[in-house]
Structures are given as structure tokens and as C-alpha cells.
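Good morning N.,

You mentioned wanting to compare the apo and holo forms, so I went ahead and generated the holo version with LXYGBJRG. This is what I fed in:
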Amino acid sequence: MKILLEDTIPFGQHYLDDVGEVRTYAWQNITPNDLIDIDILALRSTTKVTSELLTNANKLQFVTTATAGTNHLDKGFLDSSAIAHSSAAGCNAVAVAEYVLSVLLHAHKTKKLDLYHSTVGIVGAGNVGTALTRLLDALSVNYMLCDPLKKEAGDKRSFVEMNDIAQCDIITLHVPFVSEGPYPTENLIDEGFLDKLGAHQLLINACRGEVINEAALLARFNKPSPPVLVLDVFDNEPNINTALFDHCWFVTPHIAGHSVEGKVRGTQMIYEQICERAGLPATKKLSDFLDSVPPLAAALQHPTATRLSVEDLINVFHRVYNVAVDDNEMRTAIADNDGVHSGDAGLNVGAHFASLRKNYRVKDQERRECSAHTLLLPANTSKEIQKTFKDLGFSAQLIQAG
Ligand SMILES: NC(=O)C1=CN([C@@H]2O[C@H](COP(=O)(O)OP(=O)(O)OC[C@H]3O[C@@H](n4cnc5c(N)ncnc54)[C@H](O)[C@@H]3O)[C@@H](O)[C@H]2O)C=CC1
Ligand SMILES: O=C(O)C(=O)[C@H](O)COP(=O)(O)O
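and this is what came out, ligand included:
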């Protein structure tokens, strides 16, 4: 069995080397001839699986993406060519939820909002939206969900309309990019929606750039009181419009889901799918590839309180994941390399954007999810605070002072 594997899939070769004959490729260089005699194509969202790419795919039987999003696969063409396809649904949901929580904690710290008196409007109540509700539930933060498909499918949670979402203090988007059907998400956030928002509101997009109409978004910043904006995703990646940078409070290179766990879970999922197709047992486990991390000492200021203070939470959580680090990296890398900020000199923006993503935290500051960390808490930490940390995903251990 011949497997063609995108080189951005972490541990892909280690997972698959005894499953088939593996060849890797870089998404920038793949051509239709690379697909000749290939049985399985395994990729991430950077490879666009179009009918053109598959012109010479004479043996291809299965295409799988180690990502949650699937809009880079031409599913109509794959179906009509009887090529099976799959994805790694939910692999990075927790990572994206932690990204959003980091933004919310910054918003609280800088007094843009009071987290405990705010409502988060979550658009899309799938894996990411639901992972985010778990974090918000842990902190008793209010939220509303908008997901007409889940509502129609009989999901018992309570759902609101987009008009209600437009009233929320924080609006965060977690839908797939879909251009057709009863509930398209392309340009879901359009001029009309943007005009309803004001400067007291925070708009976060960590799903797909096409969900916000970028022209309308840029135009919104020429009108009074635009919302505070956080963007992880863009139209036309990697050749993004850097004119957006100046309007973003935080801007990151499509890495919301790029925790170590989020990416390796994706590899584990496609490995299991490929083994199944090959009729082989999947013997490798996620834990074979994830190192343990040293415990994290958490010196709380208010350990005996019945509610975790936002200050104590920020001090702990931002040592685990801090979006400001990624924002700084992106602005520095792209501005240093291209002198951009105005969008006028973005000659190599695409290459730099791609490189930031490929090299994301490979050297230092590996990004692990809360679940990888054991917190060392003061011995007098209240049961309520211990529970909050546990609900956020941490393990906790009490230690005696001194
Ligand atoms: N920035 C990043 O690194 C990442 C981005 N993503 C993006 O986020 C999207 C969501 O991820 P998951 O939650 O894992 O996917 P999911 O498929 O589990 O959930 C998506 C939800 O959106 C809902 N939905 C679809 N159309 C809608 C509409 N018009 N209005 C409201 N809700 C609608 C669906 O019913 C579903 O419940 C992915 O499709 C992907 O494009 C996902 C992971 C990482
Ligand atoms: O899972 C998704 O959907 C995502 O957006 C991924 O985080 C994208 O990661 P890459 O495949 O582009 O590395």
C-alpha cells in the first residue's frame, strides 16, 4: 500500500512506517504526478484536494485530513470518483477553546470587559463550541449558542438566533466554511451584522477567514465604534491581507488549534483510519508520542476563596497558553520580513505566513493543553478552586508551603 503523506503531519512517518510504503511531500510542491500509483493520501488543511490535483490518481482509494475542517477537500469530486474520505473531527477542539479563553482573560485583564458580567455568543456548537462551553461552565461565565443545524437535529441545549448573538459582549465563530445549503457560513458575518456591533464588543474568528466578509470588515473600521477584533484565520491564506493587522487587537497565523495534543491527536485519528482500511491492528497510541511535562507550581493569591479569582486564573493559565506570545511572533515575523503593516509591501507574506505555521513552537515554548499539566497548589487551596482547575482540564496536587 502506497501512502503519500504531507510533511506537516507530526509523527506521520513514525505512525505509518509499518503500515505501508510512505512518501512525504510539501504542500507547496505537490503535483498531479505525485499521485500516480498512490493508494492513500494523508494531509492537513494546506493541501487543496481538487479534481486537477487528482488527474493522475489511478489507484487512490482514500483521502484523509488530520484536521477538523474539511473545506480543502472537493468532496463532490471525491464522492463521484468513489474515493473515500475522512477527517480528524474534534482533534483540536480543546486547543481552540483554550485559545479563546486566553483572549477572554486578556480582555478582562485590560478591562475591556468583566468576564463574570459578560455573555459569550458562540456561533457553532460542534466540537470547538462545546469544548469552549466546558471552559466557560468551569468559570461560571454566561454564554449563548447559535447552531440551527444542531437545533434542527434535536440537540437539547438552548439555541438563539444570530440577532441575539449580535448583542453579546463577546462573539466567537466556530463554524465550518460552507458556501451552499440552507445554512451557508460564507460571509455569515456581513456588513449588516458588523454594523450592529460596537466598540464594547469583542469579535473572534478562529474558524475560517471566509466566514467574515473581509471587505465589509475593513470598511467597518472606517465607521464609528468598530468592535475589538481578534483574527486567527483569513481569506486566501497564506496570501493574507496584512491591512487587517492594524485593526486587530490580537492577530495569529491560523494556529488556534495547534497545540501538541491537537496536532498529534489528528495524526492518531488518521493512523487508526488507515490501519482499518489496511486491515491491520492500530497498535500505536497517543501516549507513545506525547512527552510528560514538569509540574507547574501555582502560587495563588487567594487560595482559600470559594471562587478562583481571575487574577489567579490568568497567572496560571497564561503560563500554559498566552495568545499574546503568538500575536507578537506574527507581527514581528511578517513586519520584519516585509516591512508590512499597511498591506503595501506584502511580497512574501504568503511564504512567511506558511513558515510561521510550519515552525510553530517547534524550538521552544512547546504548546501543551491544560490536560498535560499537573498544578502544584498551596495546601490550603479550597475545594471549589481545586474543582475549577480540574474542570479546566488540569490535574492538581496540593503541596505544603516551604
Ligand atoms: N483555527 C484553527 O486552528 C481551527 C479552525 N477550525 C475550524 O473551526 C470549524 C469548527 O470546528 P469544529 O467545532 O471542530 O467542527 P464541528 O463540525 O464539530 O462543529 C461545527 C458546528 O457548526 C455548526 N454550523 C454549521 N453551519 C452553521 C451556521 N450557519 N450557523 C451556526 N452553526 C453552524 C454545525 O452544525 C456544527 O455543530 C472547523 O470546520 C474548522 O474550519 C477547527 C479547528 C482548528
Ligand atoms: O483543524 C482545522 O480545521 C484547522 O484549521 C487546523 O488547525 C489547521 O491546521 P493545518 O492543517 O493548516 O496545519
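Residues 291-321+367-402 form one domain.

Happy to go through it together on a call whenever suits you.

Best,
F.
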